[in-house]
Amino acid sequence: MISGYVQVGLLEQAMEVFEEMRTGGHMPNQVAFVTTLNACVRLGRLDDACQLFSQMANPKIVAWNVLISGHVNGGHEREAIGLFQSLIKADFKPTRSTLGSVLSAIAYLANYEYGFQVHGLAVKLGLDSNVYVGSSLISM
């Protein structure tokens, strides 16, 4: 139900179902968390998204990507870069989506020194030729 509500743009309803699920004693799985996280981000409720993310037992890379891209799209580039740095410290392997988002944030802030480091990481991971990553590199 949560996913269906999000897919048709009924974001508040999706979040209500998620809360009902939790208050009813049901433990949401990773998909329910990420879908609700996406609803928070799409509503521009980044504080709620961060709080929800912190409640996840073992967030997967998809959850990180939703949170990072949400911050970039919401105009919170510094926070997005901070989240990316936390992701790296937690030993997660960034994906093309992760790198594309963080490189967009870096480009907006004109933080080229850090951009060169992230570019090096993209090369190391073999993602530098990906269209999404490449477009972000060109923007930077």
From TrEMBL:
One term of GO molecular function: RNA binding
Pfam family, one: PPR_2
Name of the protein in question: Pentatricopeptide repeat-containing protein
The keyword Cell division is assigned to this record: no
One GO term of the biological process aspect: RNA modification
UniProt-listed PANTHER family: PENTATRICOPEPTIDE REPEAT-CONTAINING PROTEIN (PTHR47926)
Species of origin: Fraxinus pennsylvanica
Keywords: Repeat
